[in-house]
Amino acid sequence: MKNDVRCYSPPAFILCIIALLLSAHALAREKRQMVRLAKIAVDSAHLESYKDLLTEEIEASVRLEPGVLTLYAVAEKEHPTHLTILEIYADTAAYKTHLQTLHFIKYKTGTKEMVKSLELIAADPLVPGMKIK
């Protein structure tokens, strides 16, 4: 094969070991990530207020919390009160820290009466190395 990695010389061998260690570290980090979907139904009378609080919470979380890797919210076109949030945290500890932040507590208490249903679904990424741009 022309494209295989050659690790015959001592410097090349050291570089191969470093590359393998970095790959293993990245894979271990991805395996620790906590990924889930939050499926939310919102009372239509409060939809705009809900979206305002959600936007504020997501922006603060992504900006202030290094362990919050992704919070991406979408609404169904045919049912705009049905929302899904893709949540990706560095690990379970980052998620637990997130739950204690003032911006999350403000969102949770502020939207409590607006939410008709909430379903939290644990998920595994199908392409774990894929980055969201």
Mean pLDDT: 86
Query: Ranges with pLDDT <50 over ≥5 residues?
Result: 24-30
User: What's the CATH class of the domain at 33-123, please?
Assistant: Alpha Beta
What is the annotated CATH architecture of the domain at 33-123?
2-Layer Sandwich
The strand line-up of the biggest sheet is 2-3-1-4
Q: Can you describe what's shown?
A:
44% of the residues lie in helices and 26% in strands. It is of the alpha+beta class and 133 residues long. The chain has a domain at 33-123: 2-Layer Sandwich (Alpha-Beta Plaits). Strands 2-3-1-4 form a 4-stranded antiparallel beta sheet, with helices on one face. Helix 2 runs antiparallel to helix 4. It is elongated. The protein starts with 9 loop residues before the first helix and ends in a 10-residue tail after the last strand. The model is unreliable at 24-30 (pLDDT under 50).
